[in-house]
Amino acid sequence: MSVNPKYLKGLNESQKDKKIKNIKETRKLLKEGKKKEAFELASKRPVKKDGSRTSSFTERFKKKFPDTKPLTKKFAEKTGIPLVAQKEIFRRGKGAFASAGSRSTVSSPEQWAYARTLAFYFKGIDNKLDFDKDLVKKYNIKFKK
Questions:
Q1: Residue 47 located in a structural domain
Q2: Is the pLDDT of residue 46 over 80?
């Protein structure tokens, strides 16, 4: 079982070792069906405090829609992504945080899921969507630019 090097970027050797161990333990718990324990363990991963930054998708979204947040009807109206689809993307994002390893600057499943929801929108309008494609068909999503 390997860990993607991008999840270890910016960490020192000690932090890398701890994060790799944590990711492997989290994956093991997920395979055993112990979701709650896996999320608790994933949230305890070492996080790089210096050099933290906002997701580029978050920055773009705040510029375009300064008064709008994901998981709201207002977000649905402005983006074309129904609330039920937003919730499913968010849920999948939280799961991805637990199983994929996340990045050293992401400290919570909610942070990961929030950025994933915004990435879904921008990649959708740019025709570069490479995840959750099934939801576009399932909810007949028509992205608004």
A1: yes
A2: no
